Amino acid sequence: MDGARQASPITRVDIEAPGNRGAAAAWRYLGDMLRNRMMLGIFLAQFSINALTYFFIAWFPVYLVQQRGMSILNAGIVASIPAICGFSGGVLGGIISDTMLRKGWSLTASRKTAIAIGMLLSTSMVICNYVDVQWIIVAVMALSFFGKGVGALGWAVLSDSAPKQIAALSGGLFNMCGNISSITTPIVIGYIIESTGSFNGALVFVGTNALVAIFAYLVIVGAGAPCSLSM
Q1: Residue 226: what pLDDT?
Q2: Low-confidence ranges of the chain (pLDDT < 70)
Q3: Which of 43, 58, 66, 71 is deepest in the core (most CB within 10 A)?
Q4: Which domain holds residue 159?
Q5: Rounded CA separation 173/170 (Å)
Q6: What is the pLDDT of residue 222?
Q7: For residue 14, what are the β-bridge partners?
Q8: Could you tell me if residue 8 is inside a domain?
Q9: Does some domain include residue 206?
Q10: pLDDT at position 13, please?
Q11: Is residue 2 part of a domain?
């Protein structure tokens, strides 16, 4: 545990004392954030985590009908199970992270541990490529979305790290990266299915996004040094 507490810190990006204000300064903040390794890691992770979300929103019911032969009615009912698990995981992830913090773990360790565990659980969806029993498939997908919920602590990390004076701009960029993923993920999955005639590659693609999120938080965010954003 001592080693975990000494992990490379999530450090708040600093802003220098007030100087020039207005639109020109805002553009400078934007440029500085897009050059800051720590902030880029947070934005990349949000993009990857949203890929998991939008697989379940856009394609999971289709997967159940086309790949697993469920009726539309049953698929609609079954598709709610991972969503419920994702909701539960989201609450539990916050509880785990905050409890670790209260018990003396560093801010970095308490956030990154929950994120890493959750994203590793999310990769379990690839197991569905190797089983044909419907209840096992549903259980694995529920575990995957549960893990996504546990690891979806992006807003907590952003609030820990982003400059307070431009929190809204940081949050806007964070949301933008998530929304870009919501646009591209359904398109990429559709292309994979069209090209291969199967969802197998799509599940690998989505699972890979979970690994990218782990890499972003453990390597890019952890190694990111604060930058100075002039006002």
Answers
A1: 45
A2: 1-26, 223-231
A3: 43
A4: 14-229
A5: 5
A6: 72
A7: 228
A8: no
A9: yes
A10: 58
A11: no
CA dist., res. 37 & res. 226, Å (int): 8
What pLDDT is attached to residue 169?
A: 87
pLDDT value, residue 187 = 96
List of long-range contacts for 72-79, beta carbons under 8 Å, 24+ apart: 78/138
Domain of 100, CATH number, reads 1.20.1250.20
Contacts of 188 (CB under 8 A, 6+ apart): 205
Q: What is the pLDDT of residue 162?
A: 82
One-letter amino acid of 69: G
* pLDDT value of position 163: 79
- Could you count the other beta carbons within 10 Å of the beta carbon of residue 105? 19
Domain annotation covers residue 3: no
- Name the nearest CA neighbour of 208 among 139, 149, 105, 123: 123
For the chain, how many structural domains are there in total? Answer: 1
